[in-house]
Amino acid sequence: MKLEDILANTKPSISFEFFPPKTDKGEENLWRCIQELSPLKPAFVSVTYGAGGSTQNRTRRIVERIRKETTLEPMAHLTCVGSTQQDLATLLAQYKASGIKNILALRGDAPEGKDEFEAVTGGFSYATDLVKFIREQNGLSVAVATYPEGHPESAGGVADDLKYLKIKQDEGAIAAVTQYFFDNEHYYRFRDQAEKLGITIPIIPGIMPIANYEQIVRFSAMCGASIPDWLHAKMKPVAQDLDTIKTMGIELATAQCQDLISNGVPGVHIYALNKSEASIAICSNL
Ligand SMILES: Cc1cc2nc3c(=O)[nH]c(=O)nc-3n(C[C@H](O)[C@H](O)[C@H](O)COP(=O)(O)OP(=O)(O)OC[C@H]3O[C@@H](n4cnc5c(N)ncnc54)[C@H](O)[C@@H]3O)c2cc1C
To answer: Rounded to the nearest whole angstrom, what is the distance from the C-alpha of residue 126 to the centroid of ligand 1?
Structure first.
């Protein structure tokens, strides 16, 4: 099913994000996780595309296997990194042929060892270009990423992200999934401003259940998601006790989702990271 039909029929939607594992054991874990999450009937599940375009084949294989062997609706992430338009056209044609209907179109980050994103000759510089290309090429449904606290490279902060989200919508994106955030006010402010700019596509909040405080502090600094003082105060003293952090992470994500759902979000997209426990607990709490 195409994403626009899924989102029109399921309100609020629950969806999960996975990454393509590097090893056979990792892949076994992913399949166990998919089986455990399937009874929750997610509206869709998405599979990331490795930094630097490094997992193109693995992403495709996982997405196609989800399509073939489960009843879940997969969405393939796709970035501009390291690919020419011809490469992208070939991959998109393969996706279409294997019944994949939904793509999350991204610019991507700089490959390891490089400081900045650089478009390849004959490739694209921004997600806006990729959205346009996919819509013109083969009519797959396209979702995009957006940043309620601003993308780390956006000189104009949130205003830039809103401007480019509007262009993504105008080029044919039918939904946006946000970077994770821990203070829902960031999302509500962003949604209000988006509405004023004529952005009407569903903006699905990305939810990160914290499983490791120190990791999330490091990762959030890179991706521009702020961690509120109250969260530091709660988790820092017990940072080494991973069971306690996991329990707190589930409680916080549950409370966050409850507040978002009661404030009319189109759905919640949980960064499941190939583990089922937190997602199952959050959904059962909800
Ligand atoms: C939900 C979600 C899923 C993700 N999945 C993946 C993944 O699978 N693989 C991966 O490698 N990364 C992934 N990322 C990370 C993403 O690739 C990085 O955040 C990347 O730096 C930006 O990608 P983008 O699509 O948002 O880029 P863009 O929307 O192209 O934005 C990049 C920068 O350029 C600016 N900009 C955007 N459009 C224009 C324009 N037309 N003209 C001038 N400036 C512009 C923006 O303000 C921003 O600073 C994901 C992020 C999110 C939120």
So the answer is: 7
